[in-house]
């Protein structure tokens, strides 16, 4: 049976190969979820919309389309079960992705998914973003930094900004309360990290499954050496 979510609901056009990669990813997610905690959502249509569709929602941002044209290098911080990194790596095979997470078992899952789906444009790294953001091989090495459901925006920006090149783009995936509850905090953190916040984009998930927001920022120049602060400090003392 062809589910509606395989057809008209995708934010971008996908090939048969890409649709089969999403189907396999769903099967692995549900299977591994019985042994390790990956997601609270297992219903097929809900996973397709709340995880897959939502991960691909950046496709509507002109900034993202420019990154796709350039074959940009992206990092997904706190990727967990692979959102948004895996759906984007499936949809945009000309871009390359680093997925990072503080939990080793989630990195094992992500490596198994990449191997099974034949995603050779993805590397999965175990670690905390505050430590990785000080690694000279990763600092200032990315055109795009992404993060979904990891921390409040002012904390996230401290995680994300150190990975970006000057002119690079950070995109925080947020809930509908972002504009009222987090935007002012993000605005306060931005100058310290040399970021410029752009207008957030709010959007609706299909089938009335909720509203979401994307909060983009531009990295105007390299982040000062003092950031990111030691692991745990950004959450305890947010900028
Ligand atoms: C709520 S889950 C969200 C996962 C995924 N991004 C999503 O949208 O479903 C948050 C993930 O971020 C990871 N995480 C939290 N803080 C982190 C940090 N400082 N560095 C790396 N990973 C972190 C956690 O281990 C967890 O897997």
From TrEMBL:
<comment type="similarity">
    <text>Belongs to the methyltransferase superfamily. RNA methyltransferase RsmG family.</text>
</comment>
<dbReference type="Pfam" id="PF02527">
    <property type="entry name" value="GidB"/>
</dbReference>
<feature type="binding site">
    <location>
        <begin position="129"/>
        <end position="130"/>
    </location>
    <ligand>
        <name>S-adenosyl-L-methionine</name>
    </ligand>
</feature>
<dbReference type="GO" id="GO:0005829">
    <property type="term" value="C:cytosol"/>
</dbReference>
<keyword id="KW-0698">rRNA processing</keyword>
<feature type="binding site">
    <location>
        <position position="148"/>
    </location>
    <ligand>
        <name>S-adenosyl-L-methionine</name>
    </ligand>
</feature>
<comment type="function">
    <text>Specifically methylates the N7 position of guanine in position 535 of 16S rRNA.</text>
</comment>
<keyword id="KW-0489">Methyltransferase</keyword>
<keyword id="KW-0808">Transferase</keyword>
<feature type="binding site">
    <location>
        <position position="78"/>
    </location>
    <ligand>
        <name>S-adenosyl-L-methionine</name>
    </ligand>
</feature>
<feature type="binding site">
    <location>
        <position position="83"/>
    </location>
    <ligand>
        <name>S-adenosyl-L-methionine</name>
    </ligand>
</feature>
<keyword id="KW-0963">Cytoplasm</keyword>
<dbReference type="InterPro" id="IPR029063">
    <property type="entry name" value="SAM-dependent_MTases_sf"/>
</dbReference>
<protein>
    <recommendedName>
        <fullName>Ribosomal RNA small subunit methyltransferase G</fullName>
        <ecNumber>2.1.1.-</ecNumber>
    </recommendedName>
</protein>
<dbReference type="InterPro" id="IPR003682">
    <property type="entry name" value="rRNA_ssu_MeTfrase_G"/>
</dbReference>
<dbReference type="GO" id="GO:0070043">
    <property type="term" value="F:rRNA (guanine-N7-)-methyltransferase activity"/>
</dbReference>
<keyword id="KW-0949">S-adenosyl-L-methionine</keyword>
